[in-house]
């Protein structure tokens, strides 16, 4: 295993354990094991993703931090607020967002310091160039936002026979929002993904199919697999549906990642 991966894995595991101790008050063997496994996966992902950015260090830090926070935390928290009782008050939601943001700031700082990206272009210049090479940019953002919902709905329907009985049991603290709420909610989440991924695409080096690879892996690994892996240790009903959601979001990530990579091309 690469030395940088080992260092990042140890650092991320320490951060995860400290965060859990602060928020939960204790840590058991299962949680500790999952924290180590998640940290190793995230370290491997960082060592693959960050060198793909054609940005100077400061800009790479800013983009990676925002991307990781939005994909791994914010968009998941928004959905959890409406689908579960994890955030039973607005205060708990805000507190979770703040803790996650601070954790992301530290993780990204360590990753940038250890991996030392070698790009020399600013994020603003990359985005300007990306806008120039992709006509009707705003329409592309809108299209990428709209297409997320049918992809999300399709894979949600595929796993629904397995998860609906758990979601509809009132004792489990889970719920399925009405379509009138789900539709605008997922449009907002789709727009957030579209904006963040467009900025990431603008900053990538020119490699064949890199947009698709980055989009799919970003949405699945830090965006779903690691958070859902952590939820398996929780003594609640969500741990029962987490494995199904892993397969669901793997499908979401591959299909939506491919579609959005075709909507935004880089010349």
From TrEMBL:
This is Uncharacterized protein. PROSITE patterns: PROKAR_LIPOPROTEIN. The chain crosses the membrane at residues 32-48, 60-78, 90-116, 137-167, 187-204, 211-232, 244-264. Keywords: Membrane, Transmembrane, Transmembrane helix. It comes from Methanosarcina barkeri MS.
């Amino acid at each position: 295993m690469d030395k940088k991966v080992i260092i990042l894995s140890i650092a991320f595991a320490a951060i995860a354990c400290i965060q859990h101790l602060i928020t939960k008050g204790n840590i058991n063997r299962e949680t500790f094991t999952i924290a180590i496994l998640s940290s190793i996966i995230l370290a491997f992902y960082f060592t693959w993703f960050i060198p793909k950015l054609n940005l100077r260090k400061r800009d790479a830090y800013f983009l990676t931090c925002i991307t990781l926070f939005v994909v791994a935390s914010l968009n998941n928290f928004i959905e959890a607020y409406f689908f579960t009782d994890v955030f039973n008050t607005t205060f708990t939601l805000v507190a979770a967002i703040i803790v996650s943001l601070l954790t992301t700031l530290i993780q990204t700082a360590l990753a940038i310091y250890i991996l030392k990206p070698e790009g020399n272009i600013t994020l603003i210049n990359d985005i300007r160039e990306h806008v120039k090479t992709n006509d009707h940019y705003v329409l592309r953002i809108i299209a990428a936002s709209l297409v997320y919902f049918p992809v999300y709905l399709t894979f949600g329907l595929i796993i629904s026979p397995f998860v609906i009985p758990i979601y509809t049991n009132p004792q489990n603290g889970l719920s399925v929002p009405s379509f009138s709420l789900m539709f605008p909610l997922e449009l907002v989440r789709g727009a957030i993904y579209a904006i963040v991924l467009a900025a990431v695409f603008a900053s990538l080096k020119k490699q064949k199919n890199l947009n698709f690879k980055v989009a799919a892996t970003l949405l699945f690994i830090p965006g779903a697999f690691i958070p859902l892996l952590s939820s398996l240790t929780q003594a609640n009903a969500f741990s029962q549906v987490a494995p199904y959601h892993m397969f669901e979001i793997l499908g979401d990530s591959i299909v939506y990642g491919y579609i959005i990579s075709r909507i935004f091309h880089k010349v």
